[in-house]
Design goal:
GO terms for molecular function: protein serine/threonine phosphatase activity. The protein is α+β, with helices and mostly antiparallel strands. Helix content is 36%, strand content 26%. It has a single domain, classed as Phosphatase 2c, domain 1, CATH 3.60.40.10. It contains eight helices and twelve strands. The protein has a six-stranded antiparallel β-sheet with strand order 1-2-12-11-8-9. Strands 3, 4, 5, 6, 7 and 10 form a six-stranded antiparallel β-sheet that branches.
């Protein structure tokens, strides 16, 4: 487990091989100085999946840290978007080159989801079906949209959510690093509020745990590390058919409750 804290964020990252797979092709990374959390779910024969996911984490982390240092504290949102685009594209080229030049790694690739926190914003970049959720005021919301064959069928109205959950084609991703020279990266920006909880996870978690159970675990009044462990434990208890990875990021600060209109008028009359 990785556990890091700053004045503004707490990071916990955990990955587990699961109950069926022989090796772990997931990788997780946290850089509290950069304000970055990364998760990758590798694919490929032998140990190639774990090679691809590890390469993605290392490349994005190291290059983003260097570029953030060069840009300085006044970096703009557009510069952050460009930074994520360049780092993920660089990781793609790096993985693809190794896949094409090393026979035992031919065909390897990896999903990736990156959360970059700056002040009161978070930028999310992803390819594949690794996800990011946000728990705010007790409500869980999926912020990323899967790049998968099943999601395309749902979007086209050809499958319902229930049919998709029962489909045998759940692991077919339509975007990944290391597969094609040119990639399409989804990069979105969201406002961050005090006490938000962001959950980055591989499909080894979400295939085993529904959103209601995930929300209940995320809301538990325990430590961030304990919540991450409980998520992995439940996924294993439900079968653990794949590697299971989760990165939790809790934002600091106090929530300010809105003042009710009636209270406002009473306060004004008292002056």
């Amino acid at each position: 487990m990785i556990h890091r804290s700053t004045a503004s964020h707490e990071f916990v990252a955990l990955t587990d091989v699961g109950r069926v797979r022989a090796n772990n092709e997931d990788a997780v990374g946290v850089n509290e100085v950069s304000g970055m959390a990364i998760l990758a779910d590798g694919m490929g024969g032998y140990n190639s999946g774990e090679v691809a996911s590890a390469m993605a984490i290392e490349y994005v982390d190291s290059h983003a840290a260097r570029m953030l240092q060069e840009l300085g504290p006044d970096v703009t949102p557009s510069e952050l978007r460009e930074l994520l685009y360049l780092c993920i594209n660089g990781a793609n080229r790096n993985i693809l080159e190794v896949a094409l030049t090393t026979p035992q790694h031919m065909g390897m690739g990896t999903t990736v989801v990156v959360a970059l926190f700056r002040r009161d914003r978070v930028l999310l970049a992803h390819l594949g079906d690794s996800r990011c959720y946000r728990l705010r005021d007790g409500a869980l919301q999926q912020l990323t949209r899967d790049h998968s064959w099943l999601q395309e069928q749902i979007d086209a109205g050809l499958l319902t959510q229930q049919q998709a959950q029962e489909s045998e084609y759940g692991n077919l991703v339509t975007r990944a690093l290391g597969v094609e020279p040119s990639i399409q990266i989804d990069i979105d920006e969201f406002p961050v509020e005090p006490q938000d909880l962001y959950i980055l996870c591989s499909d080894g978690l979400t295939d085993m745990i529904g959103d209601d159970d995930l929300a209940a675990l995320a809301r538990a009044p325990t430590s961030l590390a304990d919540r991450a462990e409980r998520m992995v434990q439940l996924a294993n208890a439900m079968g653990g058919r794949d590697n299971i990875s989760v990165v939790l990021v809790q934002t600091a600060g106090e929530k300010h409750k809105p003042i009710k209109p009636g209270l406002v008028s009473r306060l004004l009359r008292s002056y």
